[in-house]
Design goal:
CATH topology of one domain: Methylamine Dehydrogenase, Chain H
Helix content: under 10%
InterPro entries: FG-GAP, Int_alpha_beta-p, Integrin_alpha, Integrin_alpha_N
Keywords: Glycoprotein, Hydrolase, Repeat, Signal
Number of helices: 2
CATH architecture of one domain: 7 Propeller
GO molecular function, one term: hydrolase activity
CATH superfamily of one domain: Integrin alpha, N-terminal
Number of strands: 30
Largest sheet: 5 strands, antiparallel
Strand content: 35-45%
Radius of gyration: 21 Å
Distance between the termini: 29 Å
Structural class: mainly beta
Oligomer: single chain
Strand order of the largest sheet: 1-12-11-10-9
Pfam families: FG-GAP
GO cellular component, one term: integrin complex
CATH class of one domain: Mainly Beta
Length: 474
């Protein structure tokens, strides 16, 4: 049974609405463009970072984009000890476990949402917390804690995050994943710097989702032509079951029986129009072996579900790819975790979305990334490319346990309309973690001039194992 609770007006929780309207309205900024310069910035989560002597308190480093790509010299470090950020850095908070972004208050600067699912609230261990940090001309500053209406029904609030106009009213809403009987919360927009919250709704999603794991990952995009934003939700089945994935087509449907479309099971996803037909497609990554997940595969796999007018295009068979697929570099080996991370973006500037797939378990956990090209006929293995730390021009050396590819991102940090390939390896240097960025070009990512940086370059301490790069732009 699905459950849903509406909180449109709660006495004592919602005060009269007071909005501040900018004197001159600005076009909404793209997600992660925190300073409004038209370039996508990078948010790097290090939830195991020690802050103020508190182990695993967590931190987020934001590196701003520039004409040459990411610039570590222009950065902002955010922790719960940062002035204006609610709370305080405490052991186990795991601030930075999840990040998401949108121009929530429509002032022309993207804002940053950060999840701290280990936060203890009013004596409730691991109740969780979400913070919004505001963008501006000079980058990120100032923050506000995001309300949690139902503490008693959930834990680990903020373990996953997504933002979009989920109720089709023109305002951006926030989807927040947690564990417990209400594993998914929808916080109604608009979200502003001050004033009242607009209420929320919550759901256990379906009985197929284990409340012990809750909603572990989400992605958003315009999949259905009839709905501005759709949500892909990931979790696990109850008991020893494997992963489960659904497409939330319309969360406003009142009978709760028609708002989900089943997708191939997996742990992560990305949404984008691969074939440029006007409908967004969904890529689902499942890194699990069959022994751990009945929907898994040797070495892991990804599945592309093409979009259509009503969500999934049922006239096209999903495309299933693994490292034994002809044209995909490498070979499927147990533990590769191919599909452990996925991202869509246009690397070569041809107008078609390309796909980056992380395989952080490759070569005993050294890790690797595969890039596949988009085309008018969909995703293709032609011109597929493979990257690891032993690839010529990629800084560093491939070592066991690095987990290169644990997170991948295709985003235009330079403003040249070609996405950079950004890769995280949270296991690098015995758990310090590191990030790499390769420029896009007409021929795909290039390793010449590749950037690599670790936590120290962005202000994150290396006491303990910060696992810098556990989260990248969601």
């Amino acid at each position: 049974m699905r459950t849903r609770v509406l909180a449109l007006a709660l006495t004592g929780l919602v005060a009269p609405l007071a909005l501040s309207v900018p004197a001159h309205a600005a076009p909404a900024a793209a997600p992660y463009d925190f300073n409004g310069d038209g370039r996508i910035d990078l948010a790097v989560g290090a939830p195991d970072a020690t802050v103020g002597g508190r182990s695993e308190a967590g931190a987020v480093s934001v590196v701003y984009g520039g004409s040459a790509g990411l610039k570590t010299a222009t950065r902002t470090l955010i922790t719960q000890n940062t002035a204006g950020v609610p709370g305080a850095a405490e052991a186990g908070d795991a601030f930075g476990t999840a990040v998401a972004s949108a121009d929530l208050n429509k002032d022309g600067y993207a804002d940053l949402l950060v999840g701290a699912p280990g936060e203890d609230v009013d004596g409730d261990t691991n109740d969780g917390m979400v913070v919004v940090v505001w963008g501006g001309r000079n980058g990120l500053s100032g923050a506000r804690g995001v309300i949690d209406y139902w503490h008693e029904d959930k834990d680990r609030y903020g373990q996953s995050l997504a933002v979009g106009d989920l109720d089709h009213d023109g305002d951006l809403d926030v989807a927040i994943g947690s564990t417990g009987s209400l594993g998914l919360s929808f916080l109604n927009g608009p979200v502003t710097r001050s004033g009242a919250w607009q209420g929320a709704s919550g759901s256990g999603v379906t009985d197929a989702y284990s409340p012990s794991y809750g909603v572990t990952s989400m992605s958003v995009g315009n999949v259905s032509a009839a709905w501005s934003t759709s949500l892909v939700v990931h979790g696990r089945k109850p008991g020893a079951g494997g992963s489960v994935t659904d497409l939330v087509v319309d969360p406003s449907i009142g009978n709760y029986s028609d708002w989900l479309q089943g997708l191939p099971a997996g742990t992560v996803s990305a949404i984008g129009d691969i074939d440029k037909d006007g409908y967004a497609d969904i890529v689902v990554g499942n890194p699990a072996e069959r022994s751990a997940d009945p929907a898994g595969a040797k070495g892991g796999r990804v599945t592309v579900v093409y979009g259509g007018p009503a969500g999934k295009d049922t006239s096209r068979e999903p495309l299933v790819l693994d490292q034994d697929t002809p044209g995909v570099p490498g070979g499927a080996e147990t533990g590769d975790a191919f599909g452990g991370s996925v991202s869509l973006g246009d690397v070569d500037g041809d107008g078609f979305m390309d796909l980056a797939v992380g395989a952080p378990g490759e070569d005993a956990g050294a890790g690797a990334v595969t890039l596949l090209r988009g085309s008018a006929s969909g995703l293709t293995t032609r011109q597929a490319a493979w990257f690891g730390q032993n690839t010529s021009g990629v800084p560093g050396t491939s070592e066991k346990g690095d987990r290169f590819g644990a997170r991948v991102l295709l985003a235009d940090h330079s403003g040249d309309r070609r996405a950079e390939l950004t890769v995280a390896a949270p296991g690098e240097d015995a758990g310090d973690g590191a990030v790499w960025s390769l420029r896009g070009s007409a021929g795909g990512p290039v390793t010449a001039g590749a950037l690599s940086f670790g936590p120290a370059a962005t202000g994150v301490g290396t006491t303990g194992s910060p696992r810098f790069g556990t989260a990248l732009n969601g």
